[in-house]
Amino acid sequence: MNSSKHTELANHAWSVADLLRGDYRQSDYGKVILPFTVLRRLECVLEPSREKVAEIAEQHKDSGIDPDRFLRRASGHSFYNRSSLTLKKIAADPQNAAQNLQVYVGAFSDNARGVLERFEFAQQIKRLDGAGLLYKVIGKFTDLDLHPDVVPNHNMGYIFEELIRRFAEQSNETAGEHFTPREVIQLMVRLLVAPDGDALQLPGAVRTVLDPACGTGGMLSAVDDLIKELNPDATVEVFGQELNPESWAICRSDLMIKGQDPENIAFGNSFSDDGHARKSFDYMLANPPFGVEWKKVKDEVEHEHKALGEAGRFGAGLPRINDGSLLFLQHMISKMKPVDVNGGGGSRLAIVFNGSPLFTGAAGSGESEIRRWILENDWLEGIVALPDQLFYNTGISTYFWILTNRKSPDHKGKVVLLDARDQWQKMRKSLGDKRKALGKEHIAEVVKLYGEALAVAGDAEHPLHGKVKVFANEDFGYQRITVERPLKLRFEVTEETLAALEASKAIQKLPQAPALTDACKSLVGASWGTKQDAWLALKDAVVQAGGTWPTGAPFNKALRDVIGVRDLEGEVQLIKGQPEPDGELRDYENVPLGEDVEEYLAREIHPHVPDAWVDHSKTKIGYEIPFARHFYVYQPPRPLTEIDAELKALEAEIQGLLEDATE
Questions:
Q1: Are residues 131 and 232 in the same domain?
Q2: pLDDT tops 60 at residue 177
Q3: Mean pLDDT across the chain, nearest whole number?
Q4: Which of the four pLDDT bands, split at 50, 70 and 90, describes residue 545?
Q5: Closest CA to 328 of 338, 313, 311, 310
Q6: Other CB atoms within 10 A of residue 183 CB
Q7: N6 adenine-specific DNA methyltransferase N-terminal domain: from which residue to which, for each copy (predicted)?
Q8: Does one domain contain both 459 and 495?
Q9: Are 126 and 116 within 8 A, CB to CB?
Q10: Which of 66, 90, 278, 644 is most buried per CB count within 10 Å?
Q11: Widest Cα–Cα separation across the chain
Q12: 621 domain-assigned
């Protein structure tokens, strides 16, 4: 089935909007169109066995035996409908449409009925009936042919995603609440699974897959399809969790139709209500929302972080509240299978991020500590930069992070960075913010390049050498050092000094404050190079005025703050015999991990500031992955002569146009 057919069927379903206009807001169209599309799909799938199921249901009506097992076997699926009603029959009886539709929906098996309940379908039936639209809407959907022989399961996913995309547009969803284009999923799945191609082709291969933000299940379907493509006899069990009820319902219905267990798709928030606690998986992949805050589950996440530490999911650290992307990654890492003594087991995972998780957060922050935890455990296998404008609801640049706890020997201790930002083709027609697409040749090229990354990075003659870089894990680490410089002061009494003296609470609360103020007035204009000289002069003035000299560290510090003036040629201030650092001159430097800090100080800082030193007690270890910096290529500006010639040509062209206009 080609894309034009998907669009045609989606257009047919969305044409119901013409009926809803006026009675429904645009943002609510999806609340009707999506559940009716699911209902019609379920009906079309069950049509061949409808009469047989209805017959068996009638036979067991008063038997006292639960017929569920017999009805499932008769339908050939994990779900069924006991009623002899159809949407066509219901539409033909407008007066009883609402009652009959309720009966029809109630005749579904519990798992199918639960899907429709997530759409709050009963409320929509009541609302449509009240507006006199119910039988018209049902009639529209009876003309929509969604039989499996016309629309295979894989293609049905495209239709659902197109409808959800339109629903999102009408609802003004934020950039983070987007849907993953199928070609992006194809690339992601191939990067995830490709290294295991040989193992997956072994007889009796069984693999489990998790998507903790599964949406409509597109990624789960893609992994299932690829593994079955490699080995038709392989067993693939897919698991997921989804917060959005409409997407959850579509995903479950899709799994039911494909023969997978719909109970494997949990509903709720993966952070606060983990639907797959204490389970581990062979493969995991996700496209979590970008830049979406996790404030709603803050209490639960922080409690797990503090109470369970490394025994929980979020022991490495917590990112800032406005972006939960790295929480998803920690959640997935916690579900990796352990590697056995023979190197078997383990997991691979892939996740889509924007640029923020690469570098956001200074040394010691939650984000930096999470990156440190991942890199020091040697889990990060590679990062692939994708073209911008690939997603429907956001044009930002995105990256695949690929992690595993069973790296091949040649990848151990290394991270691959692959720049695939130029692997795209322009779409004939934009879809929201999506203006670029990945062609099959682009997907094949990126997968091949990723698989050969180490060889390409080591071959300077390779035509794609500049697109791949390989780093040691430690290369992304740095030491955040604090560079101090001594506080240097000269001392003077000015009119400003007197004002500061009268404003100092620490001094004015002393009984000697009036005498000290009078003494300072007599010294206006005086200046001293050392603290000792200044104190002697001030003390003599106070004594001569009949006062007593205050004592104590708080007084001495307050007085120094008042009459001391920063001066690079001034006296170095000491604390317990050591130079006192000047907070205003304090600076920070990032020193590569493993480099001697004192050597760095002598080489990079002392030539400019000889009296600087490093406060080692404040040094922090940080990790960041400056992807763009590693692939930056300097583009020299155009020669001035070329720019000048272009400007003169433009001036001549404008002059010619003006002359033509005045003739």
A1: no
A2: no
A3: 91
A4: confident
A5: 313
A6: 17
A7: 9-141
A8: no
A9: no
A10: 90
A11: 118
A12: no
From 446, 473, 500, give the residue that closes a domain.
473
**Residues 14 and 157 occupy one common structural domain:** yes
The phi, psi pair for 368, rounded to 5°, reads -65, -40
pLDDT tens for residues 397-435?
Answer: 999 999 999 999 999 999 999 999 999 999 988 877 889
Q: Kindly give the residue spans of alpha helices, DSSP state H, lying in 231-267.
A: 245-258
pLDDT at residue 85 tops 60: yes
Identify whether residues 270 and 394 lie together within a single domain.
yes
pLDDT number for residue 1: 52
Structure tokens at 93: 């009886």
Q: Is 236 domain-assigned?
A: yes
Measured distance CA(147)–CA(97) in Å, rounded: 23
pLDDT in tens, 489-543: 999 999 998 888 888 888 888 888 888 888 888 899 999 999 999 999 999 988 8
Give whole-number Cα distances, 93 to 130, 279, 300, 344, in Å.
16, 49, 51, 62
pLDDT of 2 reads 57
Q: Identify which of 242, 249, 241, 239 has the alpha carbon closest to the alpha carbon of residue 280.
A: 239
Check whether residue 350 and residue 446 sit in a common domain: yes
The span from the CA of 430 to the CA of 437, in Å, is 10
Same structural domain, 103 and 155: yes
- What is the distance between the alpha carbons of residues 227 and 240, in angstroms, rounded to a whole number? 17
What gap in Å lies between CA 438 and CA 449, rounded to an integer? 15
Residue labelled with tokens 């000697």? 512
C-alpha distances in angstroms, 564 versus 244, 489, 506, 530, 561? 63, 6, 16, 10, 6
pTM over 0.85? The answer is yes
Q: Are strands 206-211 and 235-242 parallel, antiparallel or unpaired?
A: parallel
281 or 507: whose pLDDT is higher? 281
556 and 438 in a single domain? The answer is no
- 502 lies in the same domain as 444: no
Q: Let me know: does 597 contact 481? Beta carbons within 8 Å.
A: yes
Domain extent, residue 106, equals 3-171
Residue 450: inside a domain, yes or no? yes
Tokens of 40: 């019609």
Of 168 and 481, the structure prediction assigns the larger pLDDT to: 481
Strand 399-404 to 348-353 pairing = antiparallel
Does residue 176 register a pLDDT over 50?
no
Domain C-terminal end among 572, 590, 605: 572
- Say how many CA atoms lie within 13 Å of 393 toward its Cβ: 21
**Token representation of residue 461:** 């003659």
H/E stretch holding 484 reads strand 477-484
Other beta carbons within 10 angstroms of residue 144's beta carbon come to: 19
Q: How far apart are CA 362 and CA 356, in angstroms?
A: 12
